[in-house]
Specification:
Length: 293
């Protein structure tokens, strides 16, 4: 795939849903988040299919998403989400401000976490259906640290096998807004561009192969998330934290060469302990994910 092509397009809706369901069993601490996400995927797949059939134009994204998708997102959130989120989601749309919420998200305006959640959940599949055309109504710079199509920030970093056997795995970033991917250099901060290796920290879970080269250990997951001691081996052998000491931002990296079954957007949602660990070290996400983790 070249710059701007969709990584989500290779993660079909059914595969994303299957991954979310599988990880609910593997990661009980993320079961509630993944159950809600799996339910949202049903609505989002329907919205994606409808948007393709309806021939939605870029200028119609906000109104279309608010009218055709947002009510179902709220209903699913009330049925499968935590009570606080469900109540806040209902309150946010009772003012008939759905289109304004989506439009503000497209424009990169400041929003509450609930507003961002609703906008992303409702408009995400519509934007994905429109592909590159959706970028016409999205704010944000187009440069190496932002999506070349819509200007969105990267949600997750992915290491993918190279088609050239003589070249190592290549790095791609996955857009938080439209799902497009673009290439990005390894060992370079995705937030500020820092390249000095002594300013770039890689944190890998104890017991992973990554630990052999990273030198920074994520300890304590077994005790905190496996109180009965039944877990054998690391929770996340294919995931690591990539952080920058200069800007204090981090992103989660999914190594698809170690787990080809990984669906980056789903695995990133499930990595609750790693996100908590990074934040305890004083790092902030480049951008929260759909569930505001």
């Amino acid at each position: 795939m070249g710059a701007g092509e969709s990584l989500l397009a290779t993660d079909s809706w059914s595969l994303r849903r299957q991954r979310a369901e599988a990880l609910q069993t593997r990661y009980p601490f993320a079961a509630e988040v993944l159950a809600l996400y799996a339910a949202l995927l049903v609505v989002q797949e329907q919205a994606y299919t409808a948007a393709l059939a309806d021939g939605v134009r870029p200028v119609e994204i906000a109104d279309y998403s608010a009218a055709r998708v947002l009510p179902a997102i709220v209903a699913v959130t009330k049925a499968h989400g935590p009570a606080l989120l469900a109540d806040a989601a209902q309150a946010a749309v009772e003012t008939d401000a759905g289109a304004a919420i989506v439009r503000a998200w497209l424009e990169g305006a400041e929003q509450t976490p609930v507003e961002r959640y609703l906008a992303r959940a409702a408009a995400g599949p519509v934007i994905e259906a429109l592909g590159p055309a959706a970028g016409d109504v999205c704010a944000g710079p187009r440069n190496e640290r932002h999506c070349p199509l819509c200007g969105g920030l990267p949600q997750v970093s992915v290491l993918k096998p190279s088609s050239d056997g003589l070249v190592g795995a290549r790095r791609a970033l996955l857009c938080s807004r439209c799902g497009a991917e673009w290439g990005y250099p390894r060992m370079t901060c995705i937030a500020c561009g820092e390249r000095e290796t002594d300013r770039l920290a890689v944190y890998a879970e104890e017991g992973t192969a990554e630990l052999e080269t990273s030198g920074s250990v994520v300890r304590g997951l077994a005790g905190a998330f496996d109180p009965d001691g039944s877990r054998a081996g690391p929770w996340f052998p294919h995931l690591r934290i990539e952080a920058c000491q200069t800007c204090r931002r981090y992103i989660l990296n999914v190594d698809a060469t170690r787990d080809p079954r990984a669906a980056p957007i789903v695995d990133e949602l499930a990595a609750v302990p790693l996100h908590l660990y990074a934040q305890e070290q004083g790092f902030r996400r480049v951008i929260p994910n759909l569930m505001e983790l």
